[in-house]
Specification:
Oligomer: single chain
Number of domains: 2
Shape: elongated
CATH architecture of the largest domain: 3-Layer(aba) Sandwich
GO molecular function: CoA-transferase activity
Organism: Salipiger aestuarii
Distance between the termini: 14 Å
Protein name: Formyl-CoA transferase
CATH superfamily of the largest domain: Crotonobetainyl-coa:carnitine coa-transferase, domain 1
CATH class of the largest domain: Alpha Beta
InterPro entries: CoA-transferase_III_domain, CoA-Trfase_fam_III, CoA-Trfase_III_dom3_sf, CoA-Trfase_III_dom_1_sf
Largest sheet: 6 strands, parallel
Keywords: Transferase
Number of helices: 19
Length: 408
């Protein structure tokens, strides 16, 4: 049995149904669950495919412990009439529904807006899809990487033009899915607030597209193209709009990120590496001048960093109060005292995995911080409890559904 939701978190008392799979919708509900909402995750009898993703221990996904934390798992065949009826009864007690099926799939399952309004007037319904709920591409298949490509990110994460024949580099996590999940969480909260203020009885819809979520991050890509016809180019480790900012090699084969892209910081860094000639060069006195001569600057900075081991170089630059860091692996993240002090490295007890490290809760809300109440559950662990509590089904009715393989 899953522990019942408690009063930790500002969303305590909010109940959200998730009909999601893979990443985007589950990421949205994880954020909301961390902040106190009660999350009921509806899974098919075979389970969410993400249960099998990532590194494993005891033949179980470690990521699942995080991805499904604070969620009650209900394994039910929603495509069957009996399963749909049970889910409809649960929806009647919920404040929001989050899904990432193909556009129109929720209605085809028997959960159209008209049905949802009847079940729960004022229900917030959040859709996450590749291209959105309307438009000529709405029915196309998509995952996060597709959103990253169409939204412009994959083009910008490529190697600088002319430097490599390798494919464009992917961000190391499913960023498009996660960003869409964050926007969906914002949309759910906005609609819940609006519902409380306006007292409207109609469904409150949130429509999030992977492509649009990524595009919204693209800084000056659109205005520069619209006004000047410029196409924003990949820059590798640099930033196209400010310099010097890059990753610089150290003597022991690591990389040190240095971001000295203000007039004050530039002068401080040049003094540190013994290049007063650069500090006094009028062509480098402005950011635009430094961007134009980024090759020259980066060569001089790299000449200095190559003379030092990574830890020494990082300490020297940090002591000069210049934004800088080594590139962290998981080992450095776990050892980092700032992450530890802020509660971002959590030891969570997982019933199947033992103690598992989880990332902490973001955003930090010091007065009402939320909680990791429990790790990702076994498939169908909460089916009986949820159907009894919210669908008001008897043990005999639940047993019949199980014998007919409607639930597991």
């Amino acid at each position: 049995m899953t522990p019942k939701p408690n009063s930790f978190g500002p969303l305590s008392g909010i109940r959200i149904l998730e009909i999601g799979h893979y990443i985007a919708a589950p990421f949205c509900t994880r954020i909301l669950g961390d902040l106190g909402a009660e999350i009921i995750k509806i899974e098919p009898p075979a389970g969410d495919p993400a249960r099998d993703w990532g590194a494993k221990q005891n033949d179980r996904s470690l990521w699942w412990s995080v991805h499904a934390r604070n969620k009650r798992s209900v394994a039910i065949d929603i495509k069957s009439p009996e399963g749909l009826e049970a889910v409809q009864k649960v929806i009647a007690s919920c404040d929001a529904l989050v899904e990432n099926l193909r556009p129109g799939a929720l209605a085809r399952l028997g959960l159209s807006y008209e049905v949802l309004e009847t079940l729960r007037p004022g229900l917030v319904v959040a859709h996450i899809s590749g291209y959105g709920q309307n438009g000529p591409e709405r029915d196309r298949a998509a995952f996060g990487v597709i959103g990253e490509a169409i939204g412009g990110l994959r083009y910008l994460t490529d190697h600088p033009q002319g430097t490599s024949d390798l494919p464009p580099v992917r961000v190391g996590v499913s960023l498009g899915d996660s960003v869409a999940g964050l926007y969906a969480a914002i949309g759910v909260l906005a609609q819940l607030l609006g519902r409380a203020e306006n007292k409207s009885a109609s469904c409150h819809v949130v429509d999030v597209a992977l492509t649009e979520s990524v595009l919204s991050l693209m800084e000056d890509m659109l205005p520069a193209y619209g006004a000047l016809g410029q196409i924003k180019k990949p820059t590798g480790a640099r930033i196209s709009t400010a310099a010097p900012t890059s990753a610089y090699p150290t003597r022991d084969g690591r990389w040190l990120l240095i971001a000295a892209n203000s007039d004050l910081l530039f002068g401080r860094l040049m003094a540190l590496i013994g290049r007063d000639d650069f500090a006094s060069d009028p062509e480098l006195s402005t950011n635009s001048g430094r961007v134009a001569q980024a090759d020259r600057l980066d060569a001089a900075i790299a000449e200095w960093t190559r003379q030092h081991d990574a830890n020494d170089a990082a300490r020297i630059v940090a002591e000069a109060d210049i934004p800088s860091t080594l590139i962290y692996t998981a080992a450095e993240i776990v050892a980092d005292p700032q992450f530890q002090a802020r509660g971002m490295i959590r030891k969570v007890t997982d019933a199947e995995q033992g103690t598992v490290l989880h990332p902490g809760i973001v955003p930090h809300l010091p007065d009402c911080p939320g909680a990791i109440r429990f790790a990702g559950q076994n498939l169908g662990q909460d089916t009986d409890d949820v159907l009894r509590e919210f669908a008001h089904m008897t043990a005999q009715e639940i047993g019949r559904l199980r014998s007919e393989k409607v639930i597991t």
